[in-house]
Design goal:
Layout (H helix, E strand, L loop, with lengths): L2 E7 L5 H7 L3 H13 L3 E8 L3 E8 L2 H16 L3 H4 L4 E4 L1 H11 L11 H15 L5 H20 L9 H10 L4 H5 L3 E5 L3 H13 L3 E5 L3 H12 L7 E5 L4 H7 L2 E4 L10 H12 L46 H4 L4 H12 L5 H5 L1 H21 L21 E5 L16 E5 H8 L7 H50 L5 H31 L5 H9 L4 H22 L1
């Protein structure tokens, strides 16, 4: 087994890179075809979701495989290799198996424990099987990944560790309120009718929205989804389908809009969203001040206090508006010895050019520090000084339009975040929010399951690797028995059928008994780590024809692939 995976995900690359590297369905097909045409790869599969792009392959050379797969990803994603390379990760053999199993369990998802990835892995396998790019290794790997993912969800509470991306996104939009209470009675617009959009529509229906409008480029699919939602037994939502050109008008009526399409460009621009809000409120949309603010409403701290040579860590007082960071606030609470070091640093005029230009301020600060140092020498420490009251925040209107963008590349212009009255949650903000999400205790149990399954898969693959050699050995023994029986017939032609049959059965039993213990034992040994060499040893000891072994292996692969295509 020489399994290799090269990819990038929300953990290794910023959303802007993932967005540009997204692969369409046609691009995935072409990538798979080119992967098999490349010399190092004999099998290939692509797992492409909104959060990851991964290329799996069975390669005969590690370094050549990494170089080739990285180049192919760059070519088909449209992102230059030099730009893409820093964001790529590589897993090989057991580490590659561990990675896919962890992905299947939701451990590597943006929202830990989400189960939608299982459907995406199933789709990736089906595509590889349809294109005949998945051989025995990748068929076994992806089938096992699906079983591991289902086991994790059935045997543990991993579902409690996180929700689907849709549910998590709606929780972010509701800003702390229960989604059901926040969504109840609202009107929702869902753009797209694929799996993610359908999940969003169903989630909104269960949350209690009054109306759902489905817009899709293929109107029939939108109508089918609307019929399913309207006919659901667990909801009484009013659902209807509209063409894509009706989106601007429907956006004016909507309280919530969810978009997840395969479009390569923006579906909702900032201007179209502004127009919708204006149509809803009847007044022009104001734009937020772009000056970044801290959590207490004050201006974001500057980088001052990080200059080389400064003996004090001034980061703790950066937000102390109204104090000079070179003066009183910087030394509050400091001991006398450190205070004297700081005074020397200030007196030398070191620091940024800006500080050198403000020499008068430096002199004033130095005088203040000298006075404070005298106080410190008497009382030991400078008492803490109370900081000024924080600047009050400017009140902002409550959002009248909540937008959830689940597409990659994005469907909604990120500039809408500056529009007052609009709240946007997209893949990037979800990634930031989920980074602080609590991990459930069940995650540790899932990790143990993954580790056990990786070991079992590796043992099975190593044991399977020696099977063609064992089959070839038994075939050779059967040929030896047949030749000897034929020779016996020539030397003892007077034997009747019963005698000939008894002799033949006896010889075969002897050969089987001689081969049984070593073939069973060699399979056990081959399943252990480092057991790959037993197949070579067996071929050498019994002088087996390598082509015979290869023919057996090809026949088994063809049979297994046919079974796997049937399962898919």
């Amino acid at each position: 087994m020489s399994l290799l995976v090269v990819g990038l995900s929300h953990r290794s690359a910023p959303v802007s890179v993932l967005e540009r590297a997204a692969l369409s369905a046609d691009a995935q097909v072409k990538l798979l075809q080119d992967t098999l045409a490349a010399e190092p790869a004999t099998e290939g599969a692509v797992l492409a979701t909104c959060n990851r792009i991964e290329l799996y392959a069975d390669v005969d050379k590690f370094h050549a495989g990494v170089a080739e797969l990285s180049t192919l990803l760059a070519q088909h994603s449209g992102v230059g290799l030099e730009e893409l390379t820093p964001h790529l990760y590589v897993h090989y053999e057991d580490r590659a198996v561990h990675h896919l199993f962890a992905v299947a369990c939701g451990l590597d998802s943006m929202v830990v424990g989400e189960g939608q990835i299982l459907g995406q892995i199933k789709d990736a396998l089906a595509t590889a099987q349809e294109l005949h790019t998945a051989g025995r290794l990748l068929n076994d790997l992806f089938q096992q990944a699906l079983r591991v993912g289902k086991r994790a969800h059935s045997e543990t509470g991993i579902d409690r560790a996180g929700q689907s991306l849709v549910t998590f996104g709606l929780e972010q939009l509701s800003a702390g309120r229960a989604v059901e209470a926040w969504a109840k009675g609202k009107k929702a617009l869902v753009i797209g009718a694929g799996s993610m959009s359908s999940l969003a529509a169903a989630t909104l229906a269960r949350a209690g929205v009054a109306e759902i409008v489905i817009a899709n480029r293929t109107h029939d699919r939108a109508e089918r989804l609307a019929e399913i939602l309207s006919g659901g037994d667990d909801t009484d939502v009013l659902a209807r389908a509209v063409p894509m050109d009706a989106v601007p008008a429907e956006l004016t009526r909507a309280d919530i809009a969810v978009s997840c399409t395969g479009a390569t460009g923006l579906v909702l621009s900032a201007d179209s969203v502004a127009a919708a809000v204006e149509g809803r409120t009847g007044s022009p949309v104001a734009v937020r001040d772009e000056t970044p603010a801290g959590p207490d409403g004050q201006l974001a701290p500057t980088s001052i206090g990080t200059d080389d040579g400064c003996p004090l860590d001034l980061s703790a007082v950066q937000g102390a508006t109204g104090f000079s960071v070179m003066g009183e606030a910087a030394v509050a609470g400091m001991d006398a010895a450190t205070l004297e070091q700081h005074a020397v640093w200030v007196d030398k005029g070191t620091g940024t050019d800006e500080r050198r230009d403000n020499r008068g301020t430096l002199d004033a600060d130095a005088e203040l520090i000298t006075a404070l140092a005298a106080t410190a020498s008497t009382v030991g420490r400078i008492p803490e000084r109370r900081r000024p009251e924080p600047v009050a925040r400017v009140p902002r209107p409550a959002p009248v339009l909540a937008l959830l963008d689940l597409a990659m590349p994005r469907d909604i212009d990120a500039a809408v975040q500056r529009l007052l009255g609009v709240r946007l949650v997209d893949i990037e903000s979800l990634a930031e929010a989920s980074a602080d999400a609590p991990m459930a205790a069940d995650v540790d149990q899932v990790r143990r399951i993954v580790s056990d399954e990786v070991a079992a898969f590796g043992a099975a693959q190593r044991a399977a690797h020696i099977t063609p050699t064992v089959v070839a050995l038994r075939a050779m023994a059967a040929d030896v028995v047949a030749n000897e029986i034929a020779r016996l017939d020539g030397r003892l032609p007077d034997l009747d059928d019963k005698q000939r049959g008894e002799i033949g059965q006896t010889v075969r039993r002897v050969v089987d008994k001689l081969l049984h213990a070593p073939t069973v034992r060699v399979k056990q040994l081959a399943a252990e780590p480092g057991g790959a060499g037993y197949a070579d040893a067996l071929r050498t000891l019994f002088d087996l024809d390598p082509e015979t072994v290869a023919a057996v292996s090809r026949a088994e692969n063809n049979t297994e692939n046919a079974k796997n295509r049937g399962r898919a």
